[in-house]
Amino acid sequence: MMGASSRGTQLKQINPLTYLKCTGCGTVSSREFREGDYVFKETEEKCPKCDSTKMIVEDIYVEEKPHQGKSR
Ligand SMILES: [Zn+2]
User: pLDDT 10s digit of each residue in the chain, 72 long?
Assistant: First the structure.
């Protein structure tokens, strides 16, 4: 299981994603996590579909760190 096919895509920082659900039409959209975000928080994000400005944080997804190949 060694030797990934891709390389050079390592990110130095973890960028969690916040999933927002529109209270109007139920559309879920994601954006970068911002400080203060938590699940079920009401935000004033603008829904891309119905232009409602009330969206609730439905989920926060944290990408795992890429494995660091320290072989020494
Ligand atoms: Zn909407």
Answer: 666 566 666 656 678 999 999 999 999 999 999 999 999 999 999 999 999 999 999 999 987 766 777 766
Longest dimension (CA), the chain: 54
Query: What is the reported pTM?
Result: 0.68
Residue 24 CA to ligand 1 centre (angstroms): 5
Cα 14 to ligand 1 centre (Å): 28
The answer to whether the Cα torsion of 8, 62, 17, 30 is positive or negative is: positive
Domain ranges, ordered by start, for the chain: 17-61
